[in-house]
Amino acid sequence: MTPERFKAMIRDRSFTSEEVIAFTGVDKFTFRNWLKRGVVEMGEKHRLGRWLFSPVDMIRVSAMVDLVENIGMSPSAASGLCDEVVKLLDTFVEASIANRKEGVRTSPLLAPLDHYLIVAIVAKDKVSYRHAIRQGDLIVFGDEEKQDAGLLMLRVTHVVLAAGLIIDDMLEKVKAALDERKA
User: Fold this and answer.
1) In the prediction, which pLDDT does 170 show?
2) CATH number of the domain at 3-182, out of 3.40.50.720, 3.40.50.300, 3.40.109.10, 1.10.1660.10?
C-alpha cells in the first residue's frame, strides 16, 4: 500500500462502535460516555444516525483506555496525550510520502514502530509532550539526550505512553478486519 493510500485509509470512517469496542477493549458504557461528552475528538454520525470511526479514532480510544482505565488519568487530561499519538503517526506518514516523492524507498522510522514513546512532562500548570524511542533500558529523546528508562518511569511528573505499540496493535487489527471484509 502506498503511503498516500495508507494516509486515506487511516482516516476513512468505516468502523462501527461495536468494532471499536472489540478492537480497543474499552468498556461500552465508558465509550458511549466519552462520545456523549466529547471527551476525545473521534467519529462522526452517519446520515442514517449511526456512528462511524476510523483507525485513527481507534488509536485514540486505545490510548485513552491505557491512560484512563489502566493508569487512572482523568479523560480530559489523557485527551492531549492521545492527540500526540496521532501526531506521531501523522509525522511518519508524511515522512513516508516525502521519501516516496524523492525516490527513497526506505522507512523514515529510526527504530521499530513499537519502540516509539510519547512522554508527557508535567510542570506546575502545563504539560509538554516529547517523542522518544526506547532503546533497551534507555529512553532516547534526540540524537544524544538519553535517560535511564527505570528512573524516568519512577518520576511522578512523567507519564510514558507506548505510542508505537498502540499504533502497531490497532493497525494490525484494522488490517485483519479489512482483509476479512474483502473475503
Assistant:
1) 86
2) 1.10.1660.10
